[in-house]
Structure prediction request, 280 residues.
Amino acid sequence: MVSALKNDPDYRKMLRDAGLRVTPQRASIITILSETDDHPNVEDLYEKTRALDDTVSVATVYRTMSVLENAGLVRKLVMDDAPARYEMMPQIDHDHLVDLDSGDLIEIPGTEIAELMSRVAAEMGYQIVSHHTVIRARKT
Amino acid sequence: MVSALKNDPDYRKMLRDAGLRVTPQRASIITILSETDDHPNVEDLYEKTRALDDTVSVATVYRTMSVLENAGLVRKLVMDDAPARYEMMPQIDHDHLVDLDSGDLIEIPGTEIAELMSRVAAEMGYQIVSHHTVIRARKT
DNA sequence: TTGTAAATGCGAATTATTCGCAAATGTCAA
DNA sequence: TTGACATTTGCGAATAATTCGCATTTACAA
Prediction:
């Protein structure tokens, strides 16, 4: 269903600017990922997207995530014992914390950590392309 | 060859204190990992360990890494597109940076990042168990 | 409208990692 | 020192996430 995309011509532009074609599958997948506030993995995305567009395949979800990640439009969260999860690249950067007891993935508000990383990397002569930080923690 | 371990009875104690048995395989694997300054993956470890002890199997390398990680003696570095890599748990914490052009994994000196993370986590009511941070960057 | 490179679906292939099980062995108590 | 027994091991099979090959479809520039 392409209507969701029509409501949000942003995605068309985002894809175009990245030199990517606007396919209905990509539109559906992006719509789902944008409307989700948790951090779905490929299976989650596939199932939710299927509900509104049964032309998408798992392979395309994988390919779309990969392509959008390379374009800097999506961030991949690499878990150390579970399939990767994804989020639309946030306007305001943040990191992630896994609550080891509940399994929840929580966003850490504030840009301090990212800013410190940039500074430290700069001191080493590097510019950060992306960073994946997942903190594993327990409630005190 | 167990001699390496005998020279470093530390490992025996480390294992004992963690409630783990001191097997020749574990001794060989720890010896190799300790003597290495890069960050080997399981395949690297397996091959290098084999050279001095041909009784180790890949499965045991996996199991040993897992067991040592749980005991807090080894840190697993989760890569987003390659097998996990390992290092002995460092005395002084540090993070890691992947040079996207060379593929090198570089240690970031200093504990600032880890300290900031602890502080931020504490503010959220969490205590960090472990964190994996991999910064992907390019030389400026 | 059309030519063509890009994208897709399908299912098979790949690959890192885990598992089951029988045999071996480290450790602790006697 | 010895024996008992839970732990650890090797092996190969199993699992699970992800990628790939290929024939077909499709977006879109001209």
Remarks:
- Strands of chain B lie at 74-77, 85-88, 95-99, 105-108, 126-139.
- The interface with chain A takes residues 76, 78-80, 84, 97, 99-100, 106, 108, 110, 112-113, 116-117, 120-122, 124-140 of chain B (CB under 8 Å).
- The CA atoms of residues 76 and 92 of chain B lie 16 Å apart.
